[in-house]
Amino acid sequence: MKLSVGMRVANSLSLTPQLQQAIRLLQLSSLELEQEIQLQLDSNPLLEKIEEHSSVESLSEYEDKEIEKKDLTNELNANHLPDDLPVDTDWDDVYTHQPTSLGSIEYEEREDNRQGGLSLKDHMLDQVNLLNFSLVDKLIAHCIIDSLDEKGFLESSTEEITFSVQHLLDSMEYDEEVEESEVLVVLKHIQRLEPIGIASRTLAECLQVQLDALNKNVPFRSEAIKLLNFYELLIANDLPKLLKQTHLNIEQLKQAISLLKTLKPYPGEEFENKDFDYQIPDVVVTKKNEHWFVQLNPDVMPKLRVNSYYANMIRRADQSDDNQYLRSQMLEAKNFIKSIDERHKTLLKVATCIVEHQRAFFEIGAEGMKPLVLRDIAEEVELHESTVSRVTTNKYMLTPRGLFELKYFFSSHVGTTSGGEASSTAIRAKIKKLIAEENILKPLSDNAISNLLKEDGIEVARRTVAKYRESLHIPSSSERKVLI
């Protein structure tokens, strides 16, 4: 084999650092983007953020005033720089706005007035401190309260609580034995505190405590207590056996069940933390004059620019380390600003295309959802599917119908009898609507729902209906059936 050296010309794709940065910024959520921008602001002195509601005085003007005050040397004066600097006042150097912004968003801004409420355990401890408990009983009460879950039920058994209390007493060198009966006595006191039924071990016990706390003259109270004695039959909705075991008639059984429904099954539910992590929308959709408009949320659009003062310090012919550092930082700042702008342009383009495809959804709701896949959007906006996937990940759209992730508008399709296609999201909405309108005495089976959908021209098998129903967390027809 003969070895030789030669030259060959070929085309190949390469991911430049700028392209890698643009791809990485594209898939970031609004919160992650904010963190990335702050990181760049902290590390790059030539990148600055234009703060709203503040004077637009440039740093160079401020520095000129400081130079006059302190009589610094003229080495840093911009007037001594050559005329052929690589910077001027064009967009490349001063970035004061985002060109993808389509004006101010017309939606009401509300102040966050959420307040931290009292937790369930703190609420219970405040009541226990008012009781005339001994030191041991208070210790038992604290152990019981520590064992409460978010719903207000007791997670630990009385044996475990007894063991924990005894261990604490031994560690404090307190010479006293604790019996399980003492724990049960304290537990009964706590169960009658507010909210009634707290620290119950089962749902039946919780309802029983609440019934016991009711006035004896409450109608059908005794009948409801009888039903709790056959709690398993009540949960199984086995009404014929309930009537036989409780010796109640249909009317008494109906009124007793109605009384049980007025009780609180989860006494600690009102103390659950209601502060959810609210998502900030990236895109806002509004309707004006029968037309839908798509706009970027200005609150998540950073206003960045290159610092003019530091940029004016760059000398073209100077090869010093400081000058080279400023050059590299200015290049990074420009690339970062352009990547941010490209991200917003792509997001706006994809969101606008989605709104055009799903116009029926915005008009009539989920039943109007059209089948849509990433390839459809990618072909229309002339982007790769992977790019569209990055754009729609962790991005949210605020619409008159609520806040939705962009991924929500993509769904698989099911064939129709007319040869068309129907979105799986629309089918789920139709199933939910059919079940909501059904006769509770004769609920629709999966097969009946499938036949009703066929009448609307949607070919869906019974197994598919069952899968969609379960995804909506709707029980089966036998569990939805109400006999009285």
TrEMBL record:
Gene3D superfamilies: Homeodomain-like (1.10.10.60), RNA polymerase sigma-54 factor, core-binding domain (1.10.10.1330). It holds the Pfam family Sigma54_CBD. One of its GO terms (cellular component) is DNA-directed RNA polymerase complex. Residues 116-310 form the RNA polymerase sigma factor 54 core-binding domain. GO terms for molecular function: DNA binding; DNA-binding transcription activator activity; nucleotidyltransferase activity; sigma factor activity. It comes from the Bacteria. Residues 324-481 form the RNA polymerase sigma factor 54 DNA-binding domain. GO terms for biological process: DNA-templated transcription initiation. PROSITE patterns: SIGMA54_1 (PS00717), SIGMA54_2 (PS00718), SIGMA54_3 (PS50044). Keywords: DNA-binding, DNA-directed RNA polymerase, Nucleotidyltransferase, Sigma factor, Transcription, Transcription regulation, Transferase. Sigma factors are initiation factors that promote the attachment of RNA polymerase to specific initiation sites and are then released. Belongs to the sigma-54 factor family. PANTHER family: RNA POLYMERASE SIGMA-54 FACTOR. This is RNA polymerase sigma-54 factor. It comes from Acinetobacter equi.
